[in-house]
Amino acid sequence: MDLAVTLRYPHETPPLRGTTLEVAPGIHWVRMPLPFALDHINLWLLEDGDGITLIDSGLGSQLTHDIWGEVLAAWLPQRPVKRIVVTHFHPDHIGLAARLAEEHRAPIWMTLGEFVAAHAMWQQLPGFDIETMARHFAAHGLSAAVCDALRNYGNRYRKGAPALPRTFRRLFDGSRLDIGGRGWRVICGHGHSPEHASLYCEELGVLISGDMVLPRISTNVGVHAVAPDDDGLAEFLDSLAVLSHLPGDTLVLPSHGLPFHGLQPRIAALGAHHDDRCAELLAAMDAPKTAAELLPVLFSRPLDTFQTMFAMGEAIAHLNHVLHRNQVRKVEASDGIIRFVRQTEKE
Ligand SMILES: [Zn+2]
Q1: Looking at the domain assignment, is residue 104 inside a domain?
Q2: 245 C-alpha vs ligand 1 centroid, how far in Å?
């Protein structure tokens, strides 16, 4: 299926810097720049009685802080920030949350999985550290030169999230939040991050999808070094299956791209996209291959070191997925390098 399925975008352009755009009653869209190839993130400001609730914070940079100052000038001090909900631990979502929480004396609400993952990566705890990641990728055939380049990158997580909250209010799958007199249900998802929280308001027919469903790009799905045999792609697809049960006219508010209608066709397209990637990998695996050798099958463009890190995670996620489906088997040679080969009918 073509990824460019027909989605409906009610707003053709995002709000300008420092301004908001109301996309549903009491729900205001905030756009922040990001210094990456993915050059923006969407954040949401929700009217919440005598105050406001923020969904995600943006990257932990002075620029993000400055722009929040411009945005909040229209609300403060009459409508103070009452709480900050964080969908997941990636720096573009949580990066500024601790600073905003401190300045506005507002609690942070998030899931335990994301809170712990954030601190584990920040502190470089065993399994979440760069060395474990470099060894994980080396075992999947990534060259020593690229692995060393990853090691030399240092802790990029801390750059994007210079401070983290020390306490939080815990969200669970199925938690109900009252925001401005309306109920919002937490729907946890996996495969992109450990315990990603999307928020759904039945009354408004609005899903704040975070990074779980994006209109144009496919969400990065990975296998983390701490749990190297996980089937991250199955976790992600199972999570999408849960979201696909929401009503067809749901307005989806994604963290990247434009708000859209068309949740089910988008989820179907994403499923087809990953099926295609698996099929392309299988076709290339008549002889044992490493994840690193298979990168060009999934990514035709040249990758820098940073992109290689995500690409390896994505490749291993797809390989683990076809392994869990018994479509390939693992070949562990005496060199310690993991290779995969397509299962034949005879085996
Ligand atoms: Zn993310």
Answers
A1: yes
A2: 22
